[in-house]
Amino acid sequence: MSAQAIPVPNDFNKVLYAPLAEVDPEVAQIIEDETWRQFSGLELIASENLTSLATMEANGSILTNKYSEGLPGARYYGGNEHIDRLENLCRERALKAFDLDPKVWGVNVQPYSGSTANFATFTALLEPQDRIMGLGLPDGGHLTHGYYTAKKKISASSIYFQSFPYQVDPKTGYIDYERLATNANLFKPRMIICGGSAYPRDWDYAKLAATAKQHSALLMADIAHISGLVAAKVQNNPFEFCDVVTTTTHKTLRGPRAGMIFFRKDKDPEAEAKINAAVFPACQGGPHNNTIAGIATALRQVSSPEFKEYAAAVIKNSQALGAKLLSYGYKLQTEGSANHLVLWDLRPLGLTGSKIEKICDLAHITINKNAVAGDTSAMVPGGVRIGASALTSRSMGPADMEQVATFLHRAIEISQVLQKEAGSKLLKDFVAKATTGEGEGRKLIEQLAGDVQAFATRFPLPGVPDSSKIQRPAGH
Ligand code: PLP
Q1: Catalytic residue among 43, 87, 139, 222
Q2: Which cofactors go with this protein (predicted)?
Q3: Looking at the whole model, is its pTM more than 0.90?
Q4: Domain check: are 253 and 333 in the same one?
């Protein structure tokens, strides 16, 4: 059959067919710069990962064009026969990835992010002003678990619900489950939330479930950070004990940026309808089908034996990095890690998280300042959070992580030189010396930055078919 001639687009539509570099060189340049940054630096942000080429292809696909409010088989728009297949496939894969029985568990894969997944869950299962207990933000919890300060209710979860945080033991850094239980006796929560953003240890879901049961409270796990590790069964299983489990899809799960909500159907026959209605129409509009395709693709990978190897390697790498830091005499919260991250307490060194984050940034090492147990000021966090997920995706192993720890050790030494040169403890003086100074500290940063780039560019960058073709953009 001869191909039918398709007319050329009219002039005002020509822009729809040209590649990005031609249509928008400014954005193309930003993407090129960011590709170089990811390739030539060390990505240690614990909430990040490097997703696959296939996931990015799905995420950047034509599926972005389609509206599909509602659920498969019950949409508010026509033309959804393929989107229905996609969302069903994604839901099946989500349950399979976590080894869940579809008779007991259901899942909603539409949340745009982890934050909306959490708020939709509260909307579905709580009444306004119900009481919730989550790990406090300064103790490693997440904003969306009820965070507020003395002056302000920061998160919508503290505006629309009554929140009372639980904490880690300031001496050990481990969650103080006993104090949580005592406070729950007084506060009588309707929901206990477990999961965090900066907790280097696994969770005792059985203990939390016992406390929740005492108060007929719901138990929710937000496994955003560790969902890839849970799916690979290298962390405790929250599904055994919880009523509802939320996650992001872009951290250890290594998918596109989004969220999911898993709910138990057997205990509360209305849970499915309540969660689905809370996602849409209560909290969101049309699902992002390109993202759902990306999640489905990532979940297929999560169910593979290779992903199980990856997840085990993430923990080994985090532990190798932690062990090397400890060997230099540094202090880690809980003295190590049982998951993908370590929390490094810088206070004994007279340094702050902000200073080390800044020095590392200048040396192409990306980390973030973070509160550590016992911090008194949330404005000046005393530590940094370091995650191994992304570098493990770049095929680094324990020996490489030791090298990374050595770079971090150099960053500390440089900070101590700069602190002396600055002659004050103020961040602005320190940053001035680090960025514009003529002294020894500035020279040492430049050396470290060069060594980091030489090391990082030896490893492939996921999502790029041939990393040897990544060019250093002009001016870098
Ligand atoms: N829950 C936890 C535990 C997180 O760490 C995060 C983000 O880091 C979120 C929820 C929010 O996810 P998102 O940024 O996708 O809204």
Answers
A1: 222
A2: pyridoxal 5'-phosphate
A3: yes
A4: no
